[in-house]
Amino acid sequence: MEYKNSLSIHLYLTGMTQVALAEKAGLHVCQVNAAVKRNVASPRIRAKIADALGVPEEKLFPYGTRSY
User: Fold this and answer.
1) Is residue 66 helix, strand or coil?
2) 21: how many CB neighbours lie within 10 A of its CB?
3) According to the model, what pLDDT value does residue 62 have?
4) How far, CA to CA in Å, does 48 sit from each of 1, 34, 35, 44, 56?
5) What is the pLDDT at residue 24?
6) Left (φ > 0), alpha (ψ -120 to 50) or beta: where does 64 sit?
């Protein structure tokens, strides 16, 4: 299976849930879910997710995302 971003892989390997990430990033769970499942996130949301995980945005979204 090919992944469009490595966010879902990162969450799986660290054991972090989407709910926990949303709380840590100050986002709604729906925003995190859209980034993980549909690769949809604004630049602001991508930055918040990357900051919350302590991982460069380019590593989590190497192919970018579709914006809202």
Assistant:
1) strand
2) 24
3) 79
4) 27, 14, 12, 6, 11
5) 97
6) left
With tokens 């989590």, the residue in question is 60
> Where are the chain's structural domains?
7-60
- pTM for the model stands at 0.85
Q: What DSSP string describes 34-53? A: IIIII-B--HHHHHHHHHHH
- In CATH, which of 1.10.3860, 1.20.120, 3.30.70, 1.10.260 is domain 7-60? 1.10.260
Task: Give residue 60's identity as a one-letter amino acid code.
Answer: L
Q: What are phi and psi of 49, to 5 degrees?
A: -65, -45
Q: Among 18, 17, 15, 12, which Cα is nearest to 34's?
A: 18
Residue 20, token pair as written in the block: 């926990």
